[in-house]
Amino acid sequence: MVNITMYGDGSQKTIVTGNKNFADGVQTFRTATFAVLGEGFLCKFMGFRNTAGPEKHQAVAIRVQADRAIFLNCRFEGYQDTLYAQTHRQFYRSCVITGTVDFIFGDATSVFQNCLITVRKPLENQQNIVTAQGRIDGHETTGIVLQSCRIEPDKDLVPCEEQDQELPWKTHGRNFQELL
C-alpha cells in the first residue's frame, strides 16, 4: 500500500503501545510496536510507545522502512532502540523522541527537524547514546541529520561524563548535527 495517512488527536492522546523486547527472545526488528512499510506514509499527531522498560534492553517503539515517510508532531517513547529508521528516506518534524541507548538508529537517510530529544536514565551498566547510524557501505548516501533539535535530559537523569550524543553503529555509520 502507498500514500497512507494516519492522523491522531494528539501525540499524548492517540498512542499505539506495545511491549515486545529482546530480553524475552524477540529479534530487535520484530520488537517494533508499529512498523511502516508503505511508500509515502504520512503521520500526524500520533504517539508510539514501547513499554518494555530499560531492563528488557532492545525494545523498538517504531520501525520505518518506507520511502518518503513523514512524521509531524509525533511522539516516540522507549528506552533502548526507540526509533528504528531502517531504510529509505524519512523526515521527522516537531516530534518528541525519548530513550536511553542508541534510541535513534538505523541505515535510513533520516532528517529530524525542530525535534525534542529526551535522554532518559539508563541502567547502571549502560551509557546514553542518542544516535547510532548503521551504514555498512562507505558509498551509501545515508545518515542521520538533527537540524535545529534540542537534546535534553529527562528529570530522572543525573548528568555524568559518560553521556554521548552520537555513535556510528556500523563500519561506515555517520551522523550530522545542527543544534541551535
From TrEMBL:
It catalyses: [(1->4)-alpha-D-galacturonosyl methyl ester](n) + n H2O = [(1->4)-alpha-D-galacturonosyl](n) + n methanol + n H(+). Keywords: Aspartyl esterase, Cell wall, Hydrolase, Secreted. It is found in: Secreted, Cell wall. It comes from the Eukaryota. One of its GO terms (biological process) is pectin catabolic process. It holds the Pfam family Pectinesterase. This is Pectinesterase. InterPro entries: Pectin_lyas_fold (IPR012334), Pectin_lyase_fold/virulence (IPR011050), Pectinesterase_Asp_AS (IPR033131), Pectinesterase_cat (IPR000070). It comes from Salix viminalis. GO terms for molecular function: pectinesterase activity.
